[in-house]
Design goal:
alpha+beta; TIM Barrel; 2 domains; 8-stranded mixed beta sheet; about 25% strand
Length: about 550
């Protein structure tokens, strides 16, 4: 890439909300001049897209490989919470993400994880107390405190929670929120604790309460949680308080699109062009004070060239003046990634998943496609020879969580919504502590799927009566060290197997499965220690009297 070059076209100025013909001159990775131009092509120059909240680990790719995929869609930066790997490896995991991301031309803003472990009700691989969080916030390359998932603690001003929030405030760094279902006075109390943003709203009424409380809203459209349709009307109501994010995006979805897809959807619905683009490009940069260019003189030369402002097809992506993608093809070369890990689980026998019939009425988790929140039903317990067993014909399956950090018996509960007719799925991507989570139609299938993940020392697997397929994830049991194209294809093959061979009715069964151990999202979830009610924030029995 030459150290200096020029590009002409219709320049989008998001600060002044104008579009004008201009020539952009780039020197040494920065915008040296913006000059008026009389005769330019129809191509449009605009700042690159920024994902305002994402867990890179959920792409199953290390940062360097994530960047190779994302720049194809015009993304130049992410606000990234590394708490997935931090729950496995602690500070070492955060440092790994920062170091790996520095190998490629892309802007990663990794925050200091605020909730490791997410709750005291599960086994994680590490713990980050207030001192460790403060030490991370002391770093210039850690610009914010990642999502404060302990919203009950923030609302009641728990000392450890407030120590972390105050550490960020003392350093002038923003604090991300996570408050699913929190409304009214509680939303006001949560924001008043020092929380600046939220990406968990699943109703527009909830998001409005949080805007009224002073928070900014990141409209989320990920692989499991899809809130765009519900929340996008806010673009007319509070355009200056909105950003776009993916939160968790699996490799097949990242291969297809990113923030660019949300921009196109919003524009197709007739929302103001500048409001849409400011949410996608400008607001994350200004809120987090990112060193990301916005097509102003002196800025880093981070911008994209698109065909027009209607189709918005990304033709070229530049990061610090380097051409990183052309017509959908990445120009970033692959770099080697280390494979740090922590995995101590042993193979599990089918008998370990047996549940004695201790009652006639069974408490069952209800999962919904494309949602992180779950519900609860009470059903007649299906039994056989003194044990409660799955009943695929009633869509009552077994859910299990196996401790990956130390030897312990599996926790087992029951779940509806996955629709498996046979077989099992398992994954060491199990937010947030990343034990092994599995759903299955029999104890034998559960054991086969879980043991495939154990044998790989982390990964995702699908077990049918005749075969077991696995995608190994050697980086902390969360990410692959293979090219993004390979990971996306392999993930899609496993997804297809879950649907076509095992009968799952879900669009994203593995992504949904990965959240069934996330205790901080209501209502009913399963940790390695037992069945958990996220509303009461307490363990509950499998059986109901």
């Amino acid at each position: 890439m030459p150290s200096s070059f020029s590009v002409s076209g219709r320049l989008v100025d998001l600060h002044n909300r104008t579009v004008r013909p201009a020539t952009v001159s780039v020197e040494d990775g920065h915008i040296a001049r913006l000059a008026p131009a009389d005769d330019v092509s129809d191509q449009v120059l605009l700042p690159g897209f920024v994902d305002a909240h994402v867990h890179v680990e959920s792409s199953m790719l290390p940062p360097s490989e994530f960047a190779r995929a994302a720049v194809r869609h015009g993304t130049v930066a992410t606000v990234s919470d590394p708490h997935e790997i931090a729950n496995v490896l602690g500070v070492e995991g955060v440092e790994y993400m920062i170091a790996d991301g520095r190998q490629v031309p892309f802007h990663f803003a990794f925050g200091a994880p605020s909730c490791v472990p997410a709750t005291p009700f599960e086994t994680a691989g590490a713990a980050l107390g207030p001192e460790a969080v403060a030490a991370l916030l002391d770093r210039d390359d850690v610009p914010y405190l990642s999502e404060m998932m302990d919203y009950p603690g923030a609302i009641r001003r728990a000392p450890d929670v407030m120590a972390k929030i105050e550490a960020a405030a003392d350093r002038g760094k923003p604090v991300d929120g996570h408050a699913p279902g929190v409304r009214g006075a509680e939303a006001q109390a949560y924001a008043a604790a020092g929380i600046d943003t939220d990406h968990e709203s699943f109703s527009i009424a909830e998001a409005r309460d949080k805007v009224e409380a002073g928070m900014k809203i990141a409209i989320r459209e990920g692989s499991a949680a899809k809130n765009f349709d519900e929340l996008i009307p806010l673009l007319d109501e509070a355009p200056e308080r909105l950003m776009f994010c993916s939160d968790d995006r699996h490799p097949d979805a990242l291969a297809e699109g990113h923030i660019d897809a949300l921009v196109r959807r919003a524009l197709a619905r007739g929302y103001d062009r500048f409001d849409v683009l400011r949410a996608a490009c400008l607001h994350p940069v200004t809120h987090y004070d990112l060193d990301v260019g916005l097509l102003q003189e002196g800025d880093p030369a981070d911008f994209i060239v698109v065909d027009n402002l209607d189709a918005l097809t990304v033709q070229r992506t530049y990061v610090e003046g380097q051409l990183v993608a052309t017509n959908g093809a990445t120009q970033i070369h692959r770099v080697p990634s280390d494979t740090p890990n922590r995995f101590a689980a042993s193979p599990v026998a089918p008998e370990a998943f047996r549940v004695p019939a201790e009652g006639e009425r069974l408490r069952v988790i209800t999962a919904a496609d494309n949602q992180l929140v779950t519900g609860e039903e009470v059903v007649a317990a299906p039994t056989d020879d003194g044990s409660v067993v799955p009943a695929p014909d009633r869509d009552v399956l077994k859910l299990a969580v196996v401790n990956r950090y130390e030897e312990a018996p599996p926790a087992v509960a029951f779940i509806r919504g996955f629709g498996l007719e046979q077989g099992a799925l398992a994954s060491s991507v199990a937010h947030d502590s990343h034990n092994v989570v599995a759903v299955g139609a029999s104890d034998e299938a559960l054991a086969r799927a879980v043991n495939a993940v154990v044998d790989a020392q982390g990964g995702i697997s699908a077990a049918s009566p005749t075969q077991v397929q696995t995608l190994p994830l050697p980086i902390a049991g969360l990410m692959s060290d293979r090219p993004y194209e390979t990971v996306a294809r392999r993930y899609q093959e496993l997804n297809n197997m879950a649907q076509a061979d095992l009968g799952s009715t879900m669009e994203a069964p593995f992504m949904t499965l990965s959240f069934m151990a996330l205790l901080v999202i209501p209502k009913l979830k399963l940790s390695d220690r037992g069945l958990f009610d996220g509303d009461a924030f307490a363990f509950v029995d499998r059986f109901v009297e």
